[in-house]
Specification:
It comes from Polycladomyces subterraneus. The chain is mainly beta and 94 residues long. Helix content is 10%, strand content 24%. It has two helices and five strands. The strands form two sheets. The protein has a three-stranded antiparallel beta sheet with strand order 2-3-4. The chain has a two-stranded antiparallel sheet with strand order 1-5. The longest helix is centred in the middle third of the chain and has 5 residues. The radius of gyration is 15 Å and the shape is elongated. The mean pLDDT is 77.
Length: 94
């Protein structure tokens, strides 16, 4: 039986774009993608919920998607957790 995904990251799913200013220099930061994709060579190809069970974050229970953000102006990087949205809010038929 296939499990349906009820929550998803609005950034990963292209619903919104990440817009954040660097806390060091105030310049716009770049989204470098999901933190989970940096764990190992095949991480981007593993099921998201599977990775969330072993990543050491409480992202699965809290419906969050950790993203790596980087400032090309001052070389600052950080991890930002993005709140996932329930897909029924976007697609009422789900």
């Amino acid at each position: 039986m296939m499990q349906t995904v009820d929550y998803g990251c609005p950034i990963c799913n292209g619903l919104i774009s990440l817009s954040i200013l660097c806390p060091n220099c105030g310049e716009p930061m770049e989204d470098h993608g999901r933190l989970l994709d940096f764990f190992a060579n095949y991480s981007p190809y593993r099921p998201i919920d599977d990775l969330k069970k072993t990543d050491g974050w409480i992202d699965e229970a809290n419906h969050q998607c950790p993203h790596v953000v980087y400032c090309p102006h001052c070389d600052f990087s950080d991890t930002l957790t993005v709140a996932e949205v329930h897909f029924s809010a976007i697609h009422p038929d789900r």
